[in-house]
Amino acid sequence: MYQYNYADQTLVEERVAQFRDQTERFLAGELPEEQFLPLRLQNGLYIQRYAPMLRIAIPYGLLASYQLRKLAEITRKYDKGYGHFTTRTNIQLNWPKLEDVPDILAELASVQMHAIQTSGNCIRNTTTDPYAGIHKEEIADPRPYCEIIRQWSTFHPEFAFLPRKFKIAVIGTNDDRAATQVHDVGLHVKTNDEGEIGFEVLVGGGLGRIPVLGKVINKFLPRQHLLSYLDAILRVYNLHGRRDKGSKYRSRIKILVESMGGPAFAKLVNAEWEAHTKDGPLTLTDENFATASSFFSEPDYVSFDALQVQSELQQQLSADKDFANWYNQNTVAHKIAGYRAVVISLKAGLVDGKYVPSGDVSESQMDALADLSDKYSFGELRGTYQQNLVFADVQTNKLYELWQQLSELHLARANINTLTDMIVCPGWDYCSLANATTHNIAEQIEKQFDDLDYLYDLGEIRLNMSGCINACAHHHTGDIGILGVDKKGEHWYQISLGGNSSDDAKLGKILGKSVPALEVANTIQQIVDVYVDLRASTDNDVESFGQLVERVGIDPFKEKVYG
Question: Which of 273, 294, 315 is the last residue of a domain?
């Protein structure tokens, strides 16, 4: 993974010192709130319902074991002993004291971490596929390109005060595991007929009040032009994006692209590119790519007797059903024989009768995961869009003992890609923007769907739940989406069906009127019952929930729920 150079470290330490001075002046009454607001946002600091919230950057989801140990230490010392992983693969602290934030940032800087680009109207943390670099189908590893974008965008003077926030995602396979089509810019690694690497460029995706899928504006951008073309896109957005008072929700690039149409927007970008940035200082060289790629070299994989390893694994799978379930649900094929990627479920559900919110990890779990990553996965962890973690390089013959240790930590629930692998935002319990609670609804769903065999029979069903229209949990793209709404001080929940964030991205359709809090789980059960009754099957295949909704529409579900 990337290691800071002298310039990186100096910049981050200078930012810490700067924010310490700003915070001290604010607390002393010397800096007005309206002036402090953009300064704290540039350092990842929000003011939530009950306390500040600090969002810490994890560039493209890649985290070293020593960094996770530092996060554990910080949560013990300055917070309430846990952190919350987000859909942008960052981590949030929900209870820091404002006066402690400069000290937290200093601690982060000591392990090459920061909170820059996690808030404010800037280019946010770039995200990618959690299995980058390990897939056989991968055209090229997207992580070097993410790092190039990170270096270009950090402290970029022109793009630190955009009309609104700006998000970029990069993938290196045809399978989209980073929700690129609902990003401001989605970059898909491609090759042309000559075998040269480039990018398909999508612009104008986004969710929130006005959900939109991105549009292709360039089918093949040669990779040397990556930064100059992104620069042109941002320049057009800066020039034409709305900044008028009251346009907060119409200031995103998706609104600009929608208003003028994809071809017209592409024409503006190409004109800006040709006139100002193409073939200029931002043009990347083979040396640039080689340097970036050097940070992501393959670890020292071990060679195995494949037949022996497979034989031992098969014996373990046959002897232990729980391990077999976990292996089938929570491990992913690897390009290197004898290795698997392991998905660590941060959706424990109910532990000793107490609900554990999606994406939450305690400080003791962080310490243990850091130790396990050193032992089993070259000291590296990765965050996922689904609020889970990944060990990317685990020896197949070590899976059983790793599973046993994760089980003791309540981190081996075999529910990945099932209904209870929910993406859930913190909701009303924390966020000042939320209209409704989410944790109580998630707990209700957990209790309703607590049979793993039943969940496996249902197959892959993605459930995403947001506490407000800002859609931090991407409810628009869930097979089942839940949106909390406020009705005269009461919390109600709007349900949508048929969303998808993968390569065949779709926005869900609203089922009908919202339902009261106490009826959400029962309503989900009714929806699932319709799926079980109507799904088609053959000897070799069963129609998925998404396929059924695509085939029959939402009317059968609506009739079941509303009569």
Answer: 294
| Angle between helical axes of 555-562 and 545-552 (0-180°, round to 10) | 100
The number of domains in the chain is 2
Contact status, residue 211 vs residue 507, Cβ threshold 8 Å: yes
129 φ/ψ angles, rounded to the nearest 5 degrees: -70, 125
Residues 146, 284: one domain? yes
pLDDT tens digit sequence for 487-505: 999 999 999 999 999 999 9
Instruction: Give residue 470's domain range.
Output: 423-562
Tokens, residue 327: 């292996």
Report the SS3 class of residue 123.
strand
The residues near 5 (Cβ < 8 Å, ≥ 6 apart) are none
pLDDT in tens, 327-379: 999 999 999 999 999 999 999 999 999 999 999 999 999 999 999 999 999 99
Please write the tens of the pLDDT for every residue from 32-48.
999 999 999 999 999 99
C-alpha to C-alpha distance for 88 and 128, rounded to whole angstroms: 9
Same domain, 287 and 427: no
Torsion angle of the four alpha carbons 311, 317, 320, 325, in this order, in degrees rounded to the nearest 10: 170
Question: Other CB atoms closer than 10 Å to residue 160's CB: what's the count?
Answer: 17
Q: What is the longest distance spanned by two Cα atoms in the chain?
A: 73
Single residue among 294, 320, 349 that ends a domain in this structure: 294
pLDDT tens digit string along 393-426? Answer: 999 999 999 999 999 999 999 999 999 999 999 9
The closest of 87, 98, 89, 86 to 46, measured between CA atoms, is 98
- The residue written with tokens 């001080």 in the block is 489
Rounded-to-integer distance, Cα 54 and Cα 41, Å: 9
Which residue is listed with tokens 């200029």?
280
303 assigned to some structural domain: no
Residue 306 confidence class, pLDDT cut points 50, 70, 90: confident
Residue 525 one-letter amino acid: Q
* Cβ pair 432, 49 in contact under 8 A: yes
CATH number for the domain including 551? 3.30.413.10
Which alpha helices (H) appear in 110-167, and where do they start and end?
A: 143-153
d(CA 412, CA 327): 10
- CA–CA gap between residue 525 and residue 529 (Å, rounded): 6
CA distance linking residue 173 with residue 177, whole number of Å: 9
Tokens of 553: 């529409």
How far is 497 from 463, CA to CA, in rounded Å?
Answer: 9
Task: Please name the helix (run of DSSP H) or strand (run of DSSP E) that holds residue 510, with its range, or none.
Answer: strand 509-510
In a domain, 402, yes or no: no
Contact 208, 253 (CB under 8 A): no
Q: Is residue 65 part of a domain?
A: no
Report how far residue 213's alpha carbon sits from residue 204's, in angstroms, rounded to the nearest whole number.
7
Length of the chain equals 563
Which backbone phi and psi does 276 adopt, to 5 degrees? -130, -30
H/E element holding 70?
helix 65-78
Instruction: State how far the alpha carbon of 383 is from the alpha carbons of 42, 225, 293, 342, in Å.
Output: 22, 28, 20, 12
Q: Phi, psi (5° rounding) for residue 531? A: -60, -45
